[in-house]
Amino acid sequence: MFIEMSVKGLTLDPLTNMPIVILKDLEDKRVLPIWIGLFEANAIALELEKITTPRPMTHDLMRDVIAGLNARVIKVVVNDLKNNTFYAVIHLNSNGNQIVIDSRPSDAIALALRSGAPIYVSAEVVNKAKSIDMTKESEDTDQLKEWLENLKPEDFGKYQM
C-alpha cells in the first residue's frame, strides 16, 4: 500500500543543522521527515518558492532530458528504509513503457516537484520511520522526536541557505 504525500516544507534539524524535507499525507494524519543534503534542499526550496535560475539546475536538466526523450515522470515513490537510509524510485512513462529508476528520495522529490508528479511513500516505510534512530549516537533523541512531533506549518517559513 502506498500513501500519497506532499512536501509541507523544509526545516533544519536543531541538533545537526542538516536540512529536513517534511512530507505529509493528504489527510494531514502522517508526517515523514527525511534528512537531505544542502544541495538537494536548495533545489527543493527553489521549486517550492518558484524561483527561476538563469540556467537550468540539475533537477531542471533531468526534467528537460526526460521531456526531450518523449517521456514523463508518472510518480515517485519512497519505497524503502534500511539502516536509517531512505530509498526511492522514479516511475517514467516512455512511449507506453514504464521505466523505474533508483533514486535518492531528495532527488526524486525535487524532480517530482518540477514535473508535477505525485509523491508516494510505502506504508511500510512510514511504519518503519516511526522507530528510526534519528540521531544515532546522540543523547537528544527524545528531544528531537518531540520537536518533530510538535512541528507546526508556521515553523517552516522560508528556507534560507
Automatic annotation (TrEMBL):
This is BFN domain-containing protein. InterPro entries: BFN_sf, Bi_nuclease_dom. Residues 2-133 form the BFN domain. It comes from the Bacteria. One of its GO terms (molecular function) is nuclease activity.
